[in-house]
Structure formats: C-alpha cells, structure tokens
Amino acid sequence: MTGPVQVLVVGFEEASYSGVVLAELRRLREAGVVRLVDVLLVRRGEDGDFETLPLPPGADPDLGRIAAEILGGGGDEDDRDPETWSLADAVEPGGVAAVALLEHLWAASLLDAIDTAGGRPLGELWLSPADRDLIPEG
Fold first, then answer.
1. Does residue 24 surpass a pLDDT of 70?
2. Most buried by CB count within 10 Å: which residue of 8, 24, 26, 99?
3. To the nearest whole number, what is the mean pLDDT of the chain?
4. String of b and e for 49-77 (b: at least 16 CB within 10 Å)?
5. Contact indicator for 34, 108 with CB cutoff of 8 Å
6. Phi, psi dihedral angles at 90 (to 5 degrees)
7. Which of 11-25, 71-85, 124-138 has the highest mean pLDDT?
8. Burial grade of 34 (CB within 10 A; 0-12, 13-18, 19 or more)
9. HEC sequence for 34-51
10. Which are the contacts of 13, defined by CB distance < 8 A and separation ≥ 6?
11. pLDDT tens, 68-101?
C-alpha cells in the first residue's frame, strides 16, 4: 500500500532539465524521506489549455503516465477524493511546470495516528521563504 502522496507543482520560466531537483529527490529517497512516484512536465497555453512537454533525453518513456492519469481525470469517480483541485489553480496561462507525485514515507505512521485519534487533515501549505526566515534555527 502506498503512503501519503503529495501533488507538488513547481513553476519554471522555461522547461529545465538540469537534474538538480532529481538529484535531491534521490538523496531524500535514500534517506527514507520521500519517493518520487512520477513527474509530468506541462506548459499551459495563453488560452488555458495544457500540453505535455517532451521528456528529457534518456528519461523513462513511461514518465508522467501516472500523474497524467490521476490529474487528467482517469480512474473511477467513486474512488476519488471529494475535494476539488485543478492544475489550472496552480499554473498561470503561459506558465511551465513540473508536477511531481511525492510519496511521503515518513508521514504514514503520523497519518495513521491522526486517523486513530479520530482526526483528519484539513489543509496544508508550504511557508514562503520570507515566513520561514521568521522561524528561529534549531
């Protein structure tokens, strides 16, 4: 069974294949923190339509398949989360983004504990760099 999976949408000025982010994800996987389930590269046209961008050289030809199926509406509607979210909420027209599915290996037992206590996650947010600067180190 897969643990908690986050959809992380990262915007770029243009498609970039430097490998820096993938190297960090590999390091986090080796540390048992996260697993990259899939990643999809997209461009949103000025008309609002999305197109999938070509894969970087040497990439797995199935890269993006799972993300496209989940985010594109594949699967049984009865199995879907009732909360609504759209990629269009995150990517502005004219924007380029990498859409990553990250399994948070560390969070499975925490979510189990929350469920056992009768709770449920209501939301999540990543703090901006300016807000993170307000938190004391350590």
1. yes
2. 99
3. 86
4. ebeebebeeeeeeeebebbbebbeeeeee
5. no
6. -105, -30
7. 124-138
8. buried
9. EEEEEEEEEEECCCCCEE
10. 96
11. 998 875 445 455 454 567 888 899 999 999 999 9
